[in-house]
Amino acid sequence: KLDKDLIRIGPKGDGGYLIPDDIEGIVACFSPGVDLTSGFEEDCFNLGMQIYLADGSVEKPNFNLSSNEYNFLCKYVGWTNNKDFTTIDEWVKSAKIDENSDLLLQMDIEGAEYFTILNMSDSILNQFRIIIIEFHQLENLWNNGFYAMAIEVFNKILQTHTYVHIHPNNFRGIDS
């Protein structure tokens, strides 16, 4: 139970998310994983947030904002820093946002979310008031090695955050 209603940000289909209606005061949205559309990030911008996007697989986000209205890093977000990758800690610190500011994280990085979260410092994790993550490869939860990693990720998040909405991917249907 929440004391806040859930609101939808982003498009009606893929890329739209239900989040707590608790966005007042969030200064920036960090969104690793850029797709063909960035409706969620554009909505965040229209709600007054600075937006930071990162993805090494695209040249730029595909939306109707001028390049001076958003920040784009052409790197993958992961668990190391080099010419192709950055960590969330390094990315957030490079944005030079006051460390007491509340942030929003929307992450869809196709399986790299597990090591990325495990590598994230507690101080950066705590800055994200709202976290939206698409967890991939959950069909592997029956694999002991994958389960051990996934449970550590979920436990790390649960130290400071509460799950408020879980939605299965409805793109393909259900296997029984």
How many strands in all? 9
Total helical elements:
5
Structural class: alpha/beta
Major beta-sheet overview: 5 strands, parallel
Over the alpha carbons, how many angstroms does the gyration radius reach? 16 Å
Integer average pLDDT: 91
Explain how this protein is built:
It is globular, with a radius of gyration of 16 Å. The chain contains 5 helices and 9 strands; from the N terminus they run βββαββββαβααβα. The model has no long low-confidence stretch (mean pLDDT 91). It is of the alpha/beta class. The longest helix is centred in the C-terminal third of the chain and has 15 residues, at 144-158. The strands form 3 sheets. It has a 5-stranded parallel beta sheet. A two-stranded antiparallel sheet has the order 1-2. Strands 6-7 form a two-stranded parallel ribbon. 25% of the residues are buried. A hairpin with a 7-residue loop joins strand 1 and strand 2. The chain has helices at residues 39-46, 88-94, 113-119, 122-127, 144-158; strands at 6-9, 17-20, 26-32, 50-54, 71-73, 76-78, 85-87, 102-107, 128-133. Helix 3 (113-119) packs across helix 5.
Spell out the blueprint of helices and strands:
Elements: E1 6-9, E2 17-20, E3 26-32, H1 39-46, E4 50-54, E5 71-73, E6 76-78, E7 85-87, H2 88-94, E8 102-107, H3 113-119, H4 122-127, E9 128-133, H5 144-158
Parallel strand pairs: 3-4, 3-8, 4-5, 6-7, 8-9
Antiparallel strand pairs: 1-2
Helix pairs in contact: 3-5
